[in-house]
Write a structure and sequence with these properties.
The protein is an all-alpha fold. The protein is built from 4 helices and no strands.
Length: 64
């Protein structure tokens, strides 16, 4: 079940990536829902995902 939540989180983040504000809000929700090891995986995924989306860099502050 936990793995499904991680995959769902990535799907939601991809869908709202057009808006930095929404992306940050969904990222905050994800950090509250996911398990610690999933948060580490999410950080790795996030760095790769936003590499080509500089408008989302501000959301990295939420993760740290």
């Amino acid at each position: 079940m936990a793995r499904a939540m991680f995959e769902y989180t990535k799907t939601v983040l991809k869908k709202v990536s057009f808006n930095a504000e929404l992306f940050c809000k969904e990222l905050e929700k994800a950090l509250n829902r996911l398990l610690p090891y999933e948060i580490e995986e999410l950080k790795i995924w996030l760095n790769q995902f936003i590499a080509t989306k500089p408008e989302l860099y501000v959301c990295l502050a939420v993760v740290k």
